[in-house]
Amino acid sequence: MTAGTEPVQTGIAHLKNNTDPKWWLDKGMRKLSLGIFVGFCCSIQTGYDGALIASLLANPRFWVALGNPSATKLGLIVASQSMGTIPGLIPSAILSDLMGRRFGQMCGYLILMAGANTLAFASPLSPNYMIAGRVIIGFGSGMTTIAGAPYTAEIAHPRNRPQATALVQACFFIGSVTSAFVSLGCFMGIDNDWSWRLPLLLHNVMPITVLSLLYFVPESPRWLVSKGRVDEAHQILAKYHANGKMDDELVEWELAEIQRALQIEEVAKTTKFSTFFKTKGNRWRLGIIVLTGLSSQWVGNGIITLYVVSILNSVGITNPIDQKIYNGCLQIWNGISAISGALVCERYGRRKMWLTSCISQFISYSIITLCSALYANGNHAAGYVVLAGLFLYFASYAIAFTPLLLAYPIEILPFSLRSKGVSLLLICSLSATLINTFLNPIALEALEWKFYFVFLGVQVLVTALIYFYFPETQGHSLEEIAVIFDGPASKATPDDADDFAAPAERRPTLDPQ
């Protein structure tokens, strides 16, 4: 393999590690999987939240309970969760850095439960109740993501970290598929208000699950080191990454990298949001975060989602149950695509995944645009091609934009900026979602399929920026990636001073010009 293209397993192969190469056969790594699952839960919960409102709006009893709200009220209801998430992101990042990743998750899930129960037991339910409850849910959901996503990357074994981090956002579809079919089952099986109250009440399942597990999972070793609790961090790394062997080479290498990286960063507590503007490397990171957050919602996925129902109606799929089943199957397809992308991202590299996704999206979006135009001009058969194009487009989007949306920014951010960077990423993504919520329906009504050309242009621009602006992170630890952005001075384990330095063939990739 050429320098810098080998997976992490090769990069740490020279270090002796007291674990089985197959994680599921290793006692310590099996225990660690419980903590990884807890980190995944933030995305599963977000997926459930995100898909639930669309499912509920297809339930006539829910409309009656809301009092048939006006279009303006309906727009506020849809957008209210994002409105609640945005103001809580920065405080959540500060709390997560100050009190720890587990504490941040605990607070987020408790707040989320408060919002869900407010809606499930509201009597009578009104648009204002719905808006308030969803704002609370949004605040709690953002807090769980800020704490949970970095937590996954920070506790994962280096051998599995790329896949584990990429799977965080891919788990979104586990929640969305569950939400779609839970809502369908309640709609078909319950002939009263519990057909919409029960899906809201089931918000509590994931918070209760996580809260019952938090005591049994480890705290982030990187957070512990940042607080001077080096011995605790060492014990956790040894327990989960080497089956308790304190002098394991890999464990000592990890601990040395974390300590050195935090020394270089002048410890997390001294870092502020303004730090993003102080160095060229941090400005580079900030640009990637902003681009990733905005493009995740502005490459056409939002407008296509709105168009699904009208396309289904155009080809004769008008029954609400049939539409729910189609959308549920589409969510399953998206989940398979996202998980597949997460599992191969380390093998093929992040840039290749990003670029493959963008190019595939452009091709499938062009097909959808062309066939939408043909349908608008009387060719009804083109509607069926659009249905197939939707599967192709969402697969193209999900293989990279779902798993790498969180994984790539988490990788490129140093510890002191990690939770703050994730909060900025979500602010950008949710701001783009809010704009979509209010702008897209108006533009779609005025321009119809012609509005798609805007997103084709955005896709070309995003592809070019990714090609020139996104570095490859394949094959490097979290601390090594800092060298790509900040130069050799930031190297956590200098080649000439560390017994466990990177192999010679990898050093050029850690000393960029």
TrEMBL record:
GO cellular component terms attached to this protein's record: membrane
Stretch list, region Disordered: 489-513
Domain Major facilitator superfamily (MFS) profile: 35-474
Pfam family, one: Sugar_tr
UniProt GO MF annotations: carbohydrate:proton symporter activity
PROSITE patterns assigned to the protein according to its UniProt record, in alphabetical order: MFS, SUGAR_TRANSPORT_1, SUGAR_TRANSPORT_2
Subcellular compartments: Membrane
Keyword tags: Membrane, Transmembrane, Transmembrane helix, Transport
Tree of life domain: Eukaryota
Main location: membrane
Keyword Transmembrane on entry: yes
Residue ranges, compositional bias (Basic and acidic residues): 504-513
Catalytic activities: myo-inositol(out) + H(+)(out) = myo-inositol(in) + H(+)(in)
Residue ranges of the TM segments: 32-54, 74-95, 107-125, 131-153, 165-190, 196-217, 286-313, 354-375, 381-410, 422-439, 451-470
Membrane topology term: Multi-pass membrane protein
The family this protein is said to belong to: Belongs to the major facilitator superfamily. Sugar transporter (TC 2.A.1.1) family.
Name under which the protein is recorded: Major facilitator superfamily (MFS) profile domain-containing protein
